[in-house]
C-alpha cells in the first residue's frame, strides 16, 4: 500500500534525516520523498492495512499540508524502468554511462558502460554514483587496488567501473536485494564483464552488508564502496571498517550533507581517517583511509549483529 502527503522541501529534508521515523512497526514501512517540478511529496510504502497510529505519525511529518494522507494500492508499474527509460548518457571522467535506448557517443579514450533500466538503482545519473566513480578514478592514479568490495551494488555500475580502473583486481559485489543481483548479472553480460572468483572477474552475491562467507573469506579489502543510505552506513560502521585492509580506502555515499557529520563520526570511532570529501553540496562522497590492521572475525560478528532483524532496504542511488 502507498500513502502520500504534500510537503515542503524543508519537511522532505527533515524526513530524510530521520533514522527510524516509525519505530515499533513490523514490518517497518518505507519512507521516501519525491519532487515534482516545484512541489514535494512524502510517500510511505507499507504492507497490509493502514494503521491509524502509523498514518498519524506520517501526517505529523508534514504539518504544512493540513491534509490527511491519501492511501491506496501501489500502482502496478515498474517505476525504476519508467524513471530510467529516457535517461540521457552521462560522462563521468573516463566513463561514458548510457542505456540501451540512448547510447550517445563516448569521447575519445572514454570507456562505455551500458546500464539498462531494470529493478535496481545506480545509473550514473545520481550525484552519489558519479561521485563514487570520480573518487575511485582519482585513487587509481595513485596506486592499483588488488581486492575490491562493493556493498549495495544495485545495477553493478561501481563494480564495473572498478573492473575498468583495476583490471587485475579480485572484485566482490553484494546487494541485499536478490533482484538487484540478477540485474547486475545481466548488466555484466551486456558489458562483457567477466563473472567469477578469479582476478579480473566480479563475484556477485546477495548479502546484507558484509554478512556472507565469501566476503569474510576474501577480506581484508584495499578498496570498499558503500553507496547506500545514511542510517545503514552508520549502523554498518563496525563491520565495514573491519574488512578494510590497513592502508586501504573506504568510499561512502548515499548521505545528505546534514547527515555527513554523523556518518564521519561513526567511522572515525572505528579508527578510520577522513582523507577526502567531494565538494558536492547536497550529496557528499566521503573517502576514508584505514591506519590499523583489519579484523575479519570482528567484521563477521558485527555484520550478524547489525543486520539481525533490521529489515533494511540498502538501495544504491
What does this structure look like?
Strand 5 (about 90) and strand 6 (about 95-100) form a beta hairpin. Helices cover about 30% and strands about 25% of the residues. Helix 4 (about 125-140) packs parallel to helix 5 (about 155-165). It folds into two domains: about 1-75; about 80-305, 3-Layer(aba) Sandwich (Rossmann fold), CATH 3.40.50. The strands form three sheets. Strands 10-9-8-11-12-14-13 form a seven-stranded mixed beta sheet, sandwiched between helices. It is of the alpha/beta class. The protein has helices at about 10-15, 50-60, 80-85, 125-140, 155-165, 180-190, 215-220, 230-235, 235-240, 260-270, 295-305; strands at about 1-5, 30-35, 40-45, 70, 90, 95-100, 110-115, 145-150, 170-175, 200-205, 220-225, 245-255, 270-275, 285-290. It has eleven helices and 14 strands.
Summarize the structure.
This protein is α/β, with parallel strands linked by helices and 317 residues long.
Which descriptors apply to this entry?
31% helix; 2 domains; four-stranded antiparallel β-sheet; single chain; 317 residues; alpha/beta; Rossmann fold; 25% strand; seven-stranded mixed β-sheet; disordered C terminus
